[in-house]
Amino acid sequence: MWDWLFQFVEPLERSDVPYAIVGSVASSVYGEPRATNDIDLLIQLSRADAGKLAEAFSPGDFYVPPREIIEIELSRSHGGHINVIALETMMKADFYPVSVAEAGWFARRRALEVSGRKLWFAIPEAVIVHKLRFFREGGGERHLRDIRGMLAVGGDEIDRGLIEEAVADFGLDQEWRKATAS
User: Fold this and answer.
1) What is the pTM of this model?
2) Chain segment 29-55, per-residue pLDDT in tens
3) Of 91, 77, 1, 87, which Cα lies nearest the Cα of 41?
């Protein structure tokens, strides 16, 4: 069931690229499961390390953007985005470089066991903020459903104060109100 996920994580691990799973895969682990056709990962790389990502994925098996594009995306202060596609399955990974504002969240990532393997996940609060930002940028009720599922399953284990600090920092008040409305 998780093989499609491992095809993206294993090359990162072999290349020592620090990552944290976010998006619907993470919200499914922390909340209510749902189907998805891609994986979102935060990665911690500098522009000088663009080659690590480019070389991590075999060109015969994956589409990886040219190194110059990866360098540009890694250089953005916020909003960098790199797509990698598994050519056989056409499954996609969206890599988001960790911004300065996200560095503290990234440092708190945690290892969770999935199908007998240790994978790195962003903490639930970071996943919720990530989903709030995507809801702001593109709408999509699925983001709000994912957040509500995480809050329902996680209950008191989710630090709402931490989320509310990030909501204020990122100007996500309206999105947070929608996500927490009954």
Assistant:
1) 0.92
2) 999 988 888 899 999 998 889 999 989
3) 91
